[in-house]
């Protein structure tokens, strides 16, 4: 976006419109954060309650899925280590004593 330092408002507005800065601003993270902040400020007590409850439900689902996968991985690791131990154990050969 280029315009002279002493440009009039009309010139700046034209360059602004040509570069589609309003659309670029709406897509920026800064604008999205400002919008999210406005939404949070506009929440009522009931909205905050619903949000808290939804987060609790989400976290319970996430935790249960994580623990399920963790338990499954632990069982697989135990089975793999047991199989490895079986492979390492070679049958002992009995040696006869010489007289």
Explain what this protein looks like in three dimensions.
Residues 84-99 have a biased composition (Basic and acidic residues). Residues 2-59 form the Large ribosomal subunit protein eL14 domain. This is 60s ribosomal protein l14. InterPro entries: Ribosomal_eL14, Ribosomal_eL14_dom. Residues 78-99 are annotated as: Disordered. It is a single chain. The chain is mainly alpha-helical and 99 residues long. 75% of the residues lie in helices and 0% in strands. The model has no long low-confidence stretch (mean pLDDT 92). The N and C termini lie far apart (103 Å). It is built from four helices and no strands. Among the domains are: 9-42, no CATH class; 43-77. The protein has helices at residues 9-18, 21-27, 29-41, 45-88. It is elongated, with a radius of gyration of 34 Å.
